[in-house]
């Protein structure tokens, strides 16, 4: 009887020891996982496999650190872009804030549409109308004045659906990806269709991407001496549009190296992904974030006014780019506080 009891006691202790060991292994594995907000599905595996290939010395796919350049679109790739691009929301608020000084706007489109909350009329104004809004609300001020406006707006503005600051509506899985790449010798750049001076004030704090690693659209700026002080003054003229075919041009002008990895979410990123991956040289990586989660965020693709994903989605299948299904592949969507 004592032998049986001792055996059972020994077996119990052994089971406890095995369970404890398994718990420690699981815990260590979780702690060592650089992408904990990603489900263990194909996109995560593809990311890890790519990084291991290009960072393993003496392998045929090894890439020296100076050449490990990764480029990321911003709107819809790193943070929320619905119900409209965040910079557009900023421009609309600027129209309302400046309306008293511009009585002519109440009868002039697209400003009339903004002041009356007529989103249909605003959409009808198209790209030309949106550029006019940007020119009127982002120019005729110094560089420092504009940076201050952006920082103050982001500190108080709230997204209409989630009632949170826009800088909290960044994607936790993508923050982990940025950190994972940097930990493996990558230099990470933002290549945005949005304004370069709109993104720079907060990109380092939110994404860990310093201002010199932000590429974006810009308006013309000129140097002036004002009251003995050297100043950069923003003019109401388009300088460069960093979208679609403009993205490879912007990358070449600002970075001077062709990236080996590119991450986007829309047709505006198609040419950037093509430029990065269709080289015939070494291993390359392209990824598209597909918004499929209507419950936790939004679901949209081919017919969306903002962040349309149509041609790039078709190209992904042809070029073997990795497509992330947000609903299936991400455990978390937004930044963990």
TrEMBL record:
Originating species: Sinorhizobium kummerowiae
Record flagged with keyword Ubl conjugation: no
Pfam annotation, one family: HAD
PANTHER family linked: PHOSPHATASE RV3661-RELATED, PHOSPHOSERINE PHOSPHATASE
Superkingdom of this protein's organism: Bacteria
Keyword Transcription attached: no
InterPro entries: HAD-like_SerB, HAD-like_sf, HAD_sf, TAT_signal
UniProt keyword list: Hydrolase, Magnesium, Metal-binding, Plasmid, Signal
Position of the signal peptide: 1-30
Name listed for the protein in its UniProt record: Haloacid dehalogenase-like hydrolase
């Amino acid at each position: 009887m004592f032998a049986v009891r001792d055996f059972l006691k020994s077996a119990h202790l052994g089971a406890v020891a095995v369970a404890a060991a398994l718990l420690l292994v699981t815990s260590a594995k979780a702690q060592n996982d650089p992408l904990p907000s990603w489900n263990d599905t194909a996109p995560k595996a593809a990311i890890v496999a790519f990084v291991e290939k290009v960072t393993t010395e003496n392998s045929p796919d090894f890439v020296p650190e100076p050449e490990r350049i990764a480029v990321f679109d911003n709107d819809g790739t790193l943070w929320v872009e619905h119900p409209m691009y965040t910079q557009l929301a900023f421009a609309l608020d600027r129209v309302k804030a400046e309306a008293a000084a511009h009585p002519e706007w109440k009868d002039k489109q697209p400003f009339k549409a903004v002041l009356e909350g007529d989103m249909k009329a605003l959409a009808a104004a198209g790209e030309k109308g949106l550029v006019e809004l940007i020119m009127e609300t982002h120019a005729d001020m110094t560089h420092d004045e504009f940076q201050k406006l952006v920082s103050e707006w982001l500190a108080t503005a709230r997204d209409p659906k989630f009632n949170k600051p826009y800088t909290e509506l960044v994607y936790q899985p993508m923050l982990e990806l940025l950190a994972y790449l940097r930990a493996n010798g990558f230099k990470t750049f933002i290549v945005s269709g949005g304004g370069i001076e709109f993104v720079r004030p907060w990109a380092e704090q939110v994404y860990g991407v310093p201002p010199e690693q932000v590429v974006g659209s810009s308006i013309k700026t000129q140097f002036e001496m004002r009251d003995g002080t050297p100043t950069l003054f923003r003019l109401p003229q388009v300088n460069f549009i960093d979208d679609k075919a403009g993205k490879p041009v912007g990358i070449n002008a600002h970075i001077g190296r062709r990236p080996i990895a590119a991450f986007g979410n829309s047709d505006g990123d198609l040419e950037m992904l093509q430029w990065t991956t269709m080289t015939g040289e070494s291993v390359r990586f392209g990824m598209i974030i597909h918004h499929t989660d209507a419950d936790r965020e939004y679901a949209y693709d081919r017919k969306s006014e903002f962040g349309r994903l149509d041609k790039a989605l078709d190209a992904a299948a042809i070029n073997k780019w990795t497509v992330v299904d947000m609903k299936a592949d991400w455990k978390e969507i937004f930044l963990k506080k």
